[in-house]
Each structure stands twice: as structure tokens, then as C-alpha cells.
Specification:
Blueprint (H helix, E strand, L loop, with lengths): L2 E4 L2 E10 L6 E4 L5 E6 L6 H7 L1 H8 L1 H8 E6 L2 E10 L6 E4 L5 E6 L4 H10 L1 H14 L11 E4 L2 E10 L4 E5 L2 E7 L4 H35 L5 E5 L6 E3 L4 E5 L7 H13 L8 H10 L3 H11 L6
Parallel strand pairs: 2-4, 6-8, 10-12, 13-15
Antiparallel strand pairs: 1-2, 3-4, 5-6, 7-8, 9-10, 11-12, 14-15
Helix pairs in contact: 2-3, 6-7, 7-8
Length: 308
């Protein structure tokens, strides 16, 4: 596989030619390699296309690079707080979130001035520091995705076993062992990413099967029919229900015990009847799952263990 150096980073790439396509495009694969699409007549332009799209490629390979470019910061007597601002047209109020990696995100309405956001962060500085300290206290050890490490699946720990093979690749659960087969030809610096990607895709597939099995049961009991149901990598929530009846569920729920998964499904389905968190909404949730409070408590206590 040919390589090219972009800003000191060596990138491996493949070239795919097409007799009918006039388009020139690139795609960054999950394993960190780049696929270049070219017409047959432009066999010598792959490197030019890669160089011309250098920033796009490097951003796709390293999301933290994009984050660093968009970081803001405030300072007070206690020190500096860095934060990222994301804006949405339908957001009415500004809010602050601290993720499991202690990174601070400020979600703001589209038209809120930067100066107002900065003042808000300064007013919340003490809370931000307390929240980051709590996250650090609760955070599990970082994953290297090597044999012997554990992750949760359906609320129970399973041990990762990494196997290299030049044949069939994939992930399979064998008892309490999650067997991950990766390409024996991968260099060491790409093995961690390959194992993580394989496990995430396996969890997505398992979560989709679980949602397909459980959601219709509760939808029938509630008398609702979602327009569309998707399982995806939601960054800051377990699920969502749009005004049009589209439900999205985080793939991470498959790491929680099945009763907690049921609660999350019911939580979103009930929003099809009450698009809020009113007393009527919670009464409806309780009518389906009287023990919903203990499931919410489990999520709060174990949320950092569901990171991957």
C-alpha cells in the first residue's frame, strides 16, 4: 500500500479507479487508511488530491485536532478553563456539559454573542471545576484495548481477547470472553484503533438487535408507532425523540443491564405522547416501569463505565 507524508504524519492509501466516474474524492477509513477515488485517465493525480485535501484528511484522522482549533478559554483567580462552543438553531438557553474526559462543552443559541457565553462560563467556573473533579474521581482506567481488559456487556463484565489472523476477521462473544480477531498485518500503532473500531461496531450491531426486539413490545403497550428508529453514537445523551416521531438510541445502552435498556426505550417512547418531562410524562413512564427510578440511578452511577 503506498504512503504519503502530510505534516509529518505518514498516511497509507489505496486508489480506486472508475471508468464511468468523473468525480475525484477521498474517504478516510476507520482503520486510518485513505481511499482515493479517481477516473481511469487520472492515474497520476492521487498524491495531488491527497495534498489538496490535507486538512480534511488530518481532521478526520484526529478529531482532537479540530477541537483544539475551536477551543475558547476564560481565566479567573483559580486558573484557566478551556471550552468548546456548539450552537443549534432550536436551542433557547445556554448550558454547560462536562464529558467523561473532563472536556467542557457550552451549548448555546445561534445568536448568543461570544461575550455573553464567556460571562456565563465565568459564572459557572466553580461548578465546572467541581464537575471535572467528580468525573476524574469516578473515571475508570483508560482502555488500551488489549487482551485481559474488560468492558461491560448487558451489565456484566466481559474480558477482551485480541487475536491476530490473516483470515476471517470479526468479533464474537464466547462465554465471558469477547474474542476480537484483527488483521495480523496491522502495524502496532494501528492495532488499538482497529480493536476499538471492531468492538464498537459489534456493540452497535448488538444494540440494534436488542432495540428491534424490545422496542415493539413497549410501543404496543403505549399505543405508539415511531416513524423511524436508529441506533447511533450519541455523544451526550442516551436517546432522543424528535417532534416527527423519530427515535435515536445510543449504542452504549447495550453495555447496561437489560432492564435499564428497557427503561431507556420506554423513556423515549413516552416522549411521543408527552414531549417534555412533566408530571404527566413521568406518571406515564411509571405506569409502564414502576422501578424506573432505580434504572435512572444505575445510569447515573455507572455512566462512565459505558464509555468506549
Amino acid at each position: 500500500m503506498p504512503t504519503i507524508e502530510l505534516d509529518g504524519k505518514v498516511i497509507s492509501y489505496d486508489v480506486k479507479f472508475s471508468a464511468c466516474s468523473r468525480g475525484r474524492r477521498i474517504a478516510v477509513r476507520p482503520d486510518g487508511t485513505v481511499l482515493v477515488h479517481l477516473p481511469f485517465l487520472e492515474v497520476n493525480t492521487a498524491e495531488d488530491l491527497l495534498i489538496g485535501n490535507k486538512e480534511q484528511i488530518l481532521d478526520a484522522l484526529d478529531p482532537e485536532r479540530v477541537r483544539q482549533r475551536n477551543l475558547r478559554f476564560v481565566e479567573d483567580d483559580e486558573g484557566r478553563i478551556e471550552y468548546l462552543v456548539t450552537r443549534k438553531a432550536n436551542r433557547k438557553r445556554v448550558a454547560i456539559f462536562v464529558d467523561p474526559h473532563k472536556r467542557v462543552e457550552v451549548r448555546a443559541p445561534v445568536n448568543l454573542p461570544e461575550a455573553e457565553i464567556k460571562k456565563f462560563v465565568l459564572r459557572q467556573a466553580a461548578w465546572i471545576r467541581e464537575r471535572r473533579a467528580e468525573v476524574e474521581r469516578l473515571a475508570p482506567a483508560s482502555q488500551d484495548y488489549r487482551s485481559g481488559e474488560r468492558i461491560l456487556y448487558r451489565g456484566e463484565p466481559v474480558e477482551i481477547e485480541v487475536v491476530t489472523d490473516s483470515g476471517e476477521l470479526g468479533v464474537a462473544l464466547e462465554g465471558k470472553t469477547l474474542r476480537v480477531v484483527i488483521d495480523a498485518g496491522l502495524p502496532d500503532d494501528r492495532r488499538r484503533g482497529a480493536v476499538r473500531t471492531a468492538i464498537r461496531q459489534w456493540l452497535i450491531d448488538q444494540a440494534l438487535e436488542m432495540v428491534k426486539e424490545r422496542l415493539p413490545v413497549f410501543a404496543e403497550r403505549l399505543g405508539v408507532q415511531p416513524r423511524k428508529v436508529t441506533v447511533k453514537d450519541l455523544k451526550s445523551r442516551w436517546g432522543s425523540c424528535s417532534a416527527r416521531g423519530n427515535i435515536s438510541i445510543s449504542f452504549r445502552i447495550v453495555m447496561a443491564p437489560p432492564p435499564v435498556v428497557d427503561y431507556l426505550i420506554v423513556h423515549e417512547l413516552c416522549h411521543m405522547i408527552h414531549p417534555n418531562h412533566s408530571k404527566d410524562y413521568w406518571a406515564l413512564v411509571e405506569s409502564i416501569l414502576p422501578e424506573h427510578r432505580e434504572h435512572r440511578a444505575w445510569l447515573k452511577a455507572h455512566r462512565l463505565e459505558l464509555e468506549l
